[in-house]
Amino acid sequence: MRRLRALRGLFACGGCWSRPPVREDGGRAAESVPAAVPTFAGRVASLSNRLQEEEGDRAEVYRELERVLQGDDGRVQSAVLARVIAAASRDMRAAQGVTEEVRTAASDVLVALARCHFDSVMCELQCRLRALGEISEDLVFVTLGKLASSYALRCVPFVGMTLFALRTMLSQVGSSRTLRAVCSVLEQWSKAVNSYLGAWEQCSFPRVGQAQLCSSVSPLFGHAVGSWLGCEEEEAKQAVLGAMAAMMGLLVREEEHRERVWEQLPWLLGQYQQVQDSFRVTKALSYFLEILGEVQVPIPQDEVEAIGTAVHRQLSDGSKQHSGEHRSELSSCVLLLARVCPEDTVAFLRSQLGSRSEAARVVSLDLLGALVRPTAERGQSLPLLVQAVRCALGDPSRKVARAALRFTKELLGCSVQSCSAWDLVAHVFATFSQASGRLAQGKLSEAEAQEAADLQALCLDILRSLDVSVRGMTKLLWPRLLQYVVPAQYTGTLVPLCRCLRELAESRGRAGGEDGEEEPNVAASRQRAKLPRPQALLARLLVVAAAPHAGGGCGVAALRLLRALSAEIHGALGMVWAVKIPFLLQCLEGQSESCLDSAEWEQLLLKFLRTSLETIESQAWTVGLSLELSQQTGSYPRPSREQAFLYKAVGVSLAACRHVPYVRREMKKYLLRMNYLEVSEREAMISVVAGSAESHFHLALEVLQEFGASMEERPVSGAFKRLKEYHQGKRAGRHAALVLAYGRIALRAPPEQLLARVESDVVGRILRHYRASCQVLGFSFSTKDVQLKLALIRSVAEVSRAVRVAGGSRGVELCRKRELLDTLLGFVQGEPRDRLASPVRREAFVAVGHLSKLKPSLSREENRDLLDQCVQSVMPLPALEPAEEEGATAADAGHVQGLHARTMGALGELLTALLEEDLSSDWLAEMLHVLEYWLTSAKEWERERALQACAQLLGAFEERFELTGETSFGPFGSMVGLLAPFTCDSLATSCQRAGACLGHLLRIQGRTLETGAEEDEVQPLCQRLSAPDAEALRQASSRLRKIVCKHIPPAQATDFLSAALDGMLSAQSACAQAAGKWLLTFLETCGGQLLTEVPEILSIIYVRMPTMQQDTLRHFLLEAVSLLALYHPGAVIDSLLQKQLPMDSDTEELWRVLGGKFFVDHVLRVLMEKLKNSGSDQPRTSSAKPEAEEEEAALEPLKMTRAISVVVSALQSPEAVQRLLPELLPVLLKQISATVGKEMPSSALITRGKLFLKGHASDDNPCRLSLETLEAVLRTCLDGKWLRLLRQQGAWAALEDPRAHHDGVCLLTGVLLRAGTVSLPLVLVLTRWLDAPSANLRVTAAAFCAELMKEPALQEWRCLQPIARALLEKLRDSSSTVRQMAARGLGNLVSGAPEKLRKHKGAVLEALRRGLEDAAAAEVVAESLLALAKVVTELKGKAVGSAFRDIARATKGFFDAEQASLRSAAFTLYGVLAASATSRWRSFFTEELGSTWATLVLHLRDPDPGASMACQGALRLCAPFLGLRRVRQGLAVNTRLSAAELLGDVCSQLAQESPEHQEMLYVAARRRFLGSCGELQAAALDVAGVLVEHAGLEWLTREEAMPLSATLRVLRSDGDPRVQQAAARLLRDTGLEQPPRRR
Q1: Dihedral sign, CA of 616, 621, 622, 625?
Q2: What is the pLDDT of residues 1594-1610, one digit of tens each?
Q3: Could you tell me the sign of the dihedral formed by the alpha carbons of 904, 907, 908, 909, in that order?
Q4: SS3 per residue for 1021-1042
């Protein structure tokens, strides 16, 4: 406790600790704590409590506490403070149970707490230093170091006690970790002391002396030198290094300690070889040097050299890969060294410039460059640096050269006034020239070329940064910089050079030209400079300005310099150039190099030159300029753009010259000295002569004529020389040059002078020289010289342009136009068709275009032929492909592509020129027709060229449309149909060009319709047609189609559709598909407006269907018909119904399309209505209509029926037919009933159609056609089992058969009822037919109703009584079939409504009984019998009443009827009567059976199986009424016997039981021997034979045998074979073949 109090007292002396006052009551007074934010105090207290309670992650709690303490300036209450410090100190020093993370976090909390409670924290740390000398924990040292780093000045009062405590522990430092911690404290506290010594004025406590502080550090420094410098561990080395550098920086301040510091400096520098991280050494050295610079302690020369050597070695050693930050720190060390010892440092660096190491020299130059700005800022002299660098300017190393340039840049970037610094400017230009020369040689490797380019870039960077505003620079630089303008090797420096010269000139102008007193070296520099002449400056700067964007915009800089040098060039130019040059600069604003028209710009410059020369008005100056221009042509490569411009400038200067002899001499000089085998030299001559002709037209013609005459006036002895020249091309070259010269002169000539001499002296001379070039030794040859052809073509074009311009609006007639035109077309036709080898075509097209504008004009037919010839010469050329020939390069391929592009451009210009000859939409359509052949080519490159031509043509027509005076654009639809599909061509360029065509067409149409065509949207859509994204392309195409199609007038719809359909036959599948899409889009967009065009549109589609069999195309046609039907179903249906029967496959397919769409309900409804109204229920009567018309009218319903069949067969779902079935069934049944039994009309109207549908079952049977339609409808609606049932029952065959049609209707109705298809509306419609005039309709309705009576639902529909009443009435119908069906219907009432039957039994029985009296219709009687059988079965005998007797008696009358159906029905009813005979009628029926039983037995052998079976059933039912017991028992037992077996059994029983009945049976059979029905006769004979077989012949008396024998003999000769055979058998069985002998 005493030690702690003493320590606190020491703190109190230092002013850092204040003891809290004690209250009088013995308690401690409350501390005065500044008011803090409650949340801060609360959060600190909360975190403190968490530390005390040891809750949660302690490291996270400490980190949170640190953030709170750092984020607020409030103070903590003393109690909380004490708890936090105690907890943090304890965790920081804990040896076990606490992680390193927690210990570190606790240390950081103490540092953060020291911000507001420094004394408390320091007190705790000092206590932990162990005053007794025991070594403290590592983190105590670490925390002390952090405090010194964060609160340096506040630590100074504690320096003494802290270092004293450390000194007592030094002997106990053992581990490397502890050593590092102690070194950290020494480093940070030493740096804190250094900071204090540099800023002690800022501290509030009393000043501590420097000597006192150094004395506290000195023992520690000594211990470190003696004990720690030899440590081996890397981290320990770095820690010792940092501590040593900090202590050396502190001790060097005191003279008494400096010697010890210099002694340890070699050790510090030697750490570069000892410490792996050399950056730590550099930072330590930098800190030490920085302290030396602050206190300005002189460094011994040996130490300067040692420091420089160490640092220089680190920078120049290539094996050491230092980071950028490290290199910067090393350079900083040199700067700090130079701050203390500048001369020694520069001397050291200069000495290193002589090193053999290139890297050392480069480093030295860079370090010297780094010293420039600090030296200048300190006001020290720069010549010392310049002198050091001059010795390195001749160094051959490129890297050293770059370093020297970098030094120069730094040097020139300082605002210095010493002229010696600017002597390095010449070196910059020299270096640039050398680099340019090396690059121009072209023999450098890639690395060497890059190195030279880097040197150039550095030189330019220096010149760009050159500041000419420094005092004295105007006098120094003006002569030096001006000499670099004219030489071509300095062209690359012109931009910064012109800027400097312009600023210098402006500076001289502001200074008024007063140079003042010049320095000696400036005067010498002016004398050495070779100043260029004014004409040389003008010529050079104009050449540079001719390419304004070359070299980074040196042309613009040259123009600005020209304006600044106007007074230097000529005094008269100032005002003119002040206006003209800004205009030229304005022309360049916003113009990139690619957008600038170089020819037009050159003309502006030449005009500027002409104006300048006219302003000067000095012939001598002009002649001097002409000579200078000629001289400078040799400074540029041949050929070159600069040289060509100079020759043009020479021509301008000669035109401005009024000294005619000089002009003549110069023109002759150029004519004679040029090598005409070189194109560039020919152009040079032409430029000079043509430029001169602007003012000397007649002189130019005269000189040319003299030169041409001299070529022709050679002696005969020169014939062989001329032949040699011909083969070498010299002669052709001269003629070609003269031909071109005449054309160029015509362009530059004054208009009036040209028109006076154009025919003879221009055109005549051109043709004369061309023909002369094709002759040798008097013989003419067809020239193959491309250059000669091009010369003639270009000359003709130029003359045509000149004549047209000169003639103005009045027009000038060129008499030789036809001759020139034929010559040009001959050139075009003579070009090879397999390649584009020369620009002859392109130039010829241009010339033809210009020539066509001259009079006399050509006719439309002549223009069409001309266009056709030109198009045919270009379109078939092969596609552009990469050159594969040996020696071919990318440049060659680019040249060919450019030639193709320019040729197509020239063709477009020709199209425009020919269009202007007859500006109308008709002529436009004819021109497009010429191109149409190539649009449909299978070769994509031919299509692309044709589309390009179309786009050019339509663009020209759009621009000139107002001039046509047309109010409508008739070909719009056909042109869109022709061009639109190519928006999806396989070539992206073709898509773009097709889109451009549509854009032109749309804008033209927009002007005629005044709708404001959406050209703003069309343009971006066209650009998106080549999008790689398929979805984007689809959307763009769709949108484009919609925009264009809505502008097609309905009147042009057929034109558009015809063209689009023709496009679908394209050889390119994508275009064909696109044509189909355009077709559909148009119909979707405009289909509602095409009602009147529907028949024609369908006709167009129908005609093209046979040629489009591919599914990919055919579906477009079908979809088009579908769209038309969507808008105009009636019109489409009417048009399709015009096709003949039988339908061909195309017509059927069109109908099927309608069946596959959502509007099929409407289509079917329309067809139903038409079919319903097509005929009449009235029977056909005689008409006055022609037979053909009647047959056509008869075919109409058949067409509709067939159409319904096809439409229904194409349905994708049955809903439509199911909805329409109640209406559709009656219509089809009506058609079936109308056609049953009819034949197809035999008119020639259908003969053509049979070619398409051979073998169809319905071709010759209209009813079958209707049945097929009904079957198709039912197949759609019903389940397959019902259709199979119909077929199994033979319903379709019955419906087709007129005799069984009613049965077919019944079968059909029965199936429909079972399938649940019959509905009330259908019933109501068909029941109305019962009163129809047509018998067929009544039959159909009656059959339907008859079957319908079985349906119990009739009562629900409340239709039973009306239908039953109607059937009762129909029993009196004139049609027997109707009566039959009525009877059947009444019988079916048993199944449908038995209760109603019982209610109205009397009426029903009476009606059916009357039906038995219908002697004229056996089928009615049979149906009545069957119906009665049903009714009697239902009613039973008792309910039948008195009608039982009448029915039984009437029934037996039909037992022997000839019709089997009658016999069968009678037997059936009789059996029912037997079964229904109640007690009331039993005796009656027994009596009746006594007379009928034999008939029943006889009919067991009925020839009709049905009748026989019915008879067998009836006999069994009648058995109970027979008195014959054995027979009755046999009938009851033998139920499985067949009719024949049963007959035998009955006969056998009769023979045994009742011979009388046997005889009765025989009598009954014999009565039928001679009947009228052969079948029944044979059956009776067979029954007699059975009797004989079972009863023998005993019962046959002689009286009976003789008539029987006679009868049988007669019957044996009967006409019916069955009777003959039966009679013969009976004769044989009875033995009556021989006549019986009399007894």
Answers
A1: negative
A2: 556 555 656 666 666 66
A3: positive
A4: HHHHHHCCCHHHHHHHHHHHHH
